[in-house]
Amino acid sequence: MDGRKRAAGWGVLALWVxxxxxxxxxxxxxxxxxxxxxxxxxxASADSTQVAKIAEQMPGGDSTDxxxxxxxxxxxxxxDRATAAxxxxxxxxxxxxxxxxxxVPSQDGTTLLYAVSSTGxxxxxxxxxxxxxxxREKVSGWVGGPGALATDASEVYGSLDGxxxxxxxxxxxxxxxxxxxxxxxxxxxxxxxxxxxxLSMAVTYVLHQGFDISVSGQSTGVMTILVFGAGTDxxxxxxxxxxxxxxxxxxxxxxxxxALRGCGxxxxxxxxxxxxxxxxxxxxxxxxxRGMGPTAAVGVLCALVAMLTLLPALLVVLxxxxxWPLVPAYGSQVKAARxxxxxxxxxxxxxxxxxxxxxxxxxxxxxxxxxxxxPGTLKQEDSFSTAPEAVTAMKTLATAYPxxxxxxxxxxxxxxxxxxxxxxxxxxxxxxxVERGRSGGGWSEISVVVAHPPQSAGxxxxxxxxxxxxxxxxxxxxxxxxxxDMADTSAxxxxxxxxxxxxxxxxxxxxxxxxxxxxxxLIAAVVAVWGAALGIGxxxxxxxxxxxxxxxxxxxxxxxxxxxxxxxxGIFVMHRMREECLGGLEPGPxxxxxxxxxxxxxxxxxxxxxxxxxxxxxxxxxxxxxxGFVIAVGVLLDTFLVRTYLVTSASVVLxxxxWWPGAxxxxxxxxxxxxxGAGDSxGAGDSxDSGDGSEAERLPVGV
Length: 703
Hints:
- By secondary structure, this protein is α+β, with helices and mostly antiparallel strands.
- The chain is built from 24 helices and 8 strands.
- A hairpin with a 5-residue loop joins strand 2 and strand 3.
- Helix 21 packs antiparallel against helix 22.
- The longest helix has 35 residues.
């Protein structure tokens, strides 16, 4: 019988080998469908998105617009101007340009600007990047403009995959070695997480091909972080429970079956809640946010499948020896433990629940005030940690041409209305110059130069005025309009997605916990954590990291991730608390028992998840760095403040009312216990060795 069970483990491994072999061509194709064009991030219904789509249908396809910048601090010489003219002529001779570029000198004589536009690359990102690189080879000045900025952003996102994966793996490996203190065991969940990441890439590719979901460098990067972070969390919970069962059950297969029965339902519930929370992003109008929803959900679900199938199979096949040198022998007893950190925390919350609750809530509220210090909307040129050439060109132009827009606004109008639109645009306040460009497919392009620097308050006002004056059926786009649409749509998405996430998660929690009060406590806790984490970001983004602005999507994305992931941990704690209450404990002592028995493993899981998201802080894109920082800080707050103090103290204060209106709110206690008794309660439901207090094997954060 034992041989058959071991063979079942080998069968699961063989099945995973087949699945990964079939997934290989699909996973390798994900990079080919990944797009980081502006239209892939823009709001689906915005003016700027319509302009981008119309431009793709014009003769020659979408245009790649560049700005060649020649600059000398003391003033350009005659030789500089001759060199510029010669190099621009070489560019025109080697590439199909829409028109011959004309020089535009700055008033102080330090800078010369040439606007270059080509439809040669069309909508092909690879052709665009080749065109930009070839122009840069021919030009001694700086090459900027929307096309160059897109190429620089594409190169940055393309360079993220390797470093992001390697850094994430290294961080998780170090933490697992510290937690497990085994030369072998840490490799198992890491290999399984790698397999889950590979599978998630294949599934995401299939979803893109079947449903045309947007796949960007940002969404795939976050997916990788989620796979390793959430997957390692599930592994910590399962391995901890499995190690406990190995002391009670002789055969590894039977011990694993018991471990899966014990913690499997909570893992399924928590991962399902996270996936549903992520899928709420499908209601967003921002393409980048809407595309991140399904990719993030795929990452969590693939991690879940791998950790509940491949990980158990590997552990069963490897047997007890994988835990060496701390092998849990059958029939062995854990050593008596010193008073654990989480027992001490729980005792504080149990003795003085109201002061602890109010103090913790006040601390989170005070930190949330930092939101008022968040920098303004992030500009394009401030999106990179290290400024590429296109950003250098943009900043030089902003200084040299303070009274003129250097990024034309593009207007798309029907051919029959084009002449009228040109006249109305010329009469709009804040407009310096208007020129009619290409026509095709019944549409005409109109280039509008605004008399204000890019992304300034004056330019924003001029764009809004253009849209008001030109009316329905005329679309106003271009780089600056895109940034404006992103900010406006992010505000709209927050109003739609935030309530949706709260309602979906609340319903799931009510079904799982059979209570209304307990879910409301968890929801209030994670919302408070989000506000505090965002407030800490407001306090450090400027003076510590030097960020010049905040990504418009930061508030929404950080909310979705922190609520979903915070509730994830809340389910583990409340699930154990409910188990203790069903065993007869009152909610107060049950909460303390749940904290003691799950605190160590959840703290370790929180550290791993926070560390994986902290990897994003070192990435060269400010958007990713801000998102990673806020989520990492939020996870730590949730793990060590909210989960340990606030939820516990609230449960002590409310008593059986925490389970209202469920049956547990009315059922009399079978047994009772004080703080000390709760600290000693254990049993088959223990979630990990950190809870049993083993001196040799407990998780390091639990003592």
